[in-house]
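Table S2 (continued). Query chain:
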Amino acid sequence: MISLSLAEIARIVGGQQHDIPDAGVQVTGPVAKDSREVRPGGLFVAFAGERVDGHDFARRAVEAGAGAVGAARPAGGPAICVAAGVGALGARARTVVERLGATVVALTGSAGKTSTKDLIAQLLQRCGPTVWPEGNLNNEIGLPLTALRAEADTRHLVLEMGARGVGHIRYLAELTPPRIGVVLNVGTAHIGEFGGREQIAQAKGELVEALPEDGLAVLNADDPYVRAMAPRTKARTLLFGEAADADVRAENVRLTDQGRPAFTLHTPSGCGDVTMRLYGEHHVSNALAAAAVAHELGMPADEIAVALSEAGTLSRWRMEVTERADGVTVVNDAYNANPESMRAALRALVAMGTAARTAGGRTWAVLGEMAELGGDALAEHDAVGRLVVRLNVSKLVAVGGREAAWLDMGAKNEGSWGEESVHVSDAQAAVDLLRSELRPGDVVLVKASRSMGLERVAAALLDDEGVLGAEGGAAAR
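Corresponding output:
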């Protein structure tokens, strides 16, 4: 990370020094908001949460080697006290980014942000030192924490920007001004909070408004809401997608027998064939967005194609595919869910299940509730349940309360299903059912919004048998 003295940090954040014997001490380690993650020479920032107050762990952080604590009040050790802790964290991140000289790449979208961020990071790593967020650190705390991990030799800083309302992305872009901005899509995630797709588009478009004249807006040509953002930026634009006029596009898109996407990549500098390690056709769009960024930063098309073919996922619980010793395949996509990602995951399940069906195996969709859909919640759950039938998935297990009941009801109303669909109350009930029903060759998709806790279902299934290994993603155990 970029080294700063305690005195410099206090000045940048407008804080008061308390019990600091030497303000010239350099902070050379990472910033942590969890005292268990403190490293010698780092800085611990104490936030007061709903259930845990970080100030209670300040002394532990100092004992672990933190040079000081960023806090709202004196906390029993060297501290820089500031009233607005989140704002102070952002101010320090802004200073670091200004000193870096690295290319800042920011991306947003209703779905696919984390998967695309992982792809961009793996491509840009080939061109030079690259920093990116672990998981989906994409808010006013996670984004500056990522920026503060940058080193003096960092060439690329890849940042994910989330929003729960108009103005959020504008604020994040002010903290870490991007030169390249990527907008993936405008879907229905958090539509209950935004009020409609038009409002979501307004919020996501704040990213392209923040770009400088010498910057680049990378826009999805296949999404009319995103394509319409072009007039909102003073930067150049580069379109990606399957549309004929896309600058970076995919042709001959198909899925392998394992459910992996393959296509021919076209860029302004050439083309190349791609067969991805990831699962599901929805990753084609994510790959094209990553290819557009890599093209802008000078990577040749043939190298981009190779890099995309070799890339995996760097984040947990996103289409992690693991085969058990008994031949049951578990697809853990339980990190989050919205209608668009649910449909994409179901189509991937069907593609992966083609070989399984030939061998007598079945496809299982273990689906939980999709959160924050507002007044559209019941209709969207009903539609997903109907899609399960239309895609000819073998079994549906709907997990949860009222919305899950609509998943089950939608399936039964669409296909007059009987035992093919079942509604259970919680994750443990789903585990008990699956343990009694699964057989070798079955493929099981587990997906829901994070608040539903369905990752426990996947974990339990993987604990039942020895694991042969995970493909196309991080190890699941």
